[in-house]
Amino acid sequence: xxxxxxxxxxxxxxxxxxxxxxxxxxxxxxxxxxxxxxxxxxxxxxxxxxxxxxxxxxxxxxxxxxxxxxxxxxxxxxxxxxxxxxxxxxxxxxxxxxxxxxxxxxxxxxxxxxxxxxxxxxxxxxxxxxxxxxxxxxxxxxxxxxxxxxxxxxxxxxxxxxxxxxxxxxxxxxxxxxxxxxxxxxxxxxxxxxxxxxxxxxxxxxxx
Length: 208
Prior knowledge:
The chain has about 210 residues and is α+β, with helices and mostly antiparallel strands. The chain has a domain at about 5-10 and about 75-205: CATH 3.30.1330.60. About 25% of the residues lie in helices and about 25% in strands. A seven-stranded mixed sheet has the order 1-6-7-8-11-9-10. A two-stranded antiparallel ribbon has the order 2-5. Helix 2 crosses helix 3 (about 145-165).
C-alpha cells in the first residue's frame, strides 16, 4: 500500500539583522512548539557584519543585534499523520505516532512497528550517524507520573529494536521519556492528543 505524503517547507535559511532604536527592545511572539533541551536549531550566521562599516545604513543611534540564521526545515508527513519526518541542514527527525507502534496504554510493540523502526535504522546507516536520540511523549490524559513512565518505556522499546538492527558499538543513544511535556499539537482535542502521543528518533545529518 502506498502512503501519500505531504511536504512542507517551514523556514528558509536567511541572515536576520535586527536593530534597536533608542535602547527600546521589541518582543516577537514565537509560535513554534517547544522542544526538548538539546534539540534546538543551532545554525550560525554565514558572514560577520561590521557595525562600523560606513556603507551600512542604519538609523542614528540604532545598534545591530546578533545576526541569526534560521534552519531550513522540510517536513514530510503521511496523509494519515502516522509518520512524520523533519529534515534540517543539521539533523533528521522521525516522529511515529504511538498508535502505529503500541496498543493503548502499552509499551509492547505491535506487528507493524518493527518495519517502521527498521526503515529508520536504514536511514541512520545512510547518514552514518553515531549519536541518536530516542524520546517518548504522551498526551495530558491521566497522571503526569504515569505519562512519564509510559513514555520512557515506549522510548526504550524503540531503542531496543534500533540497537539490534544497527548493531554498532560506536553508536551512542540518548533515551528519554518526557510524558506530556513538549506537545506539538493542542491537547484539547483527540486529533491533537493523537499527535502528541509519539516517539521521536533524531540524529545528525551526514555525520562522518
